[in-house]
Structures are given as C-alpha cells and as structure tokens.
Write a structure and sequence with these properties.
59 residues; two-stranded antiparallel sheet; 3 helices; alpha+beta; 2 strands
Length: 59
C-alpha cells in the first residue's frame, strides 16, 4: 500500500476526525510524509475537515 492509502486506512479505522500528528502516531509514518499525503488527499477531495485542523474521509 502507498502512503495515501495508509493514511486513509488509519482515518477510517479511527472513526473520528484526526490531526496529522495523530495519523503520524497511528501509522508510524514520518510527519512530512503524512503532511504530503494530506495535501494530495485534500486536492483530490478524498478527505474533508469537519473541525479545524482535523480531517476525516469524505463520504
């Protein structure tokens, strides 16, 4: 699996909006990789932000 898939999987498993730091802890990925994945997922409209600085998969 790629980094974006790992990030999305962690977000789905958590069942709640997560910050990049929380995703980093859950996945063990480097923070820069998580930030890059967030940026790409936001651009693809794959994740949405229900509250400031927290993200979850789009429906």
């Amino acid at each position: 699996m790629g980094i974006k898939e790992d990030v999305l999987s962690a977000m789905k498993d958590a069942g709640k909006p997560l910050s990049a730091g929380e995703v980093e802890k859950l996945t063990g990925l480097d923070r820069k990789e998580v930030d890059k994945a967030f940026k790409e997922l936001k651009k693809e409209n794959t994740i949405v932000s229900p509250v400031r600085c927290k993200w979850e998969p789009a429906n």
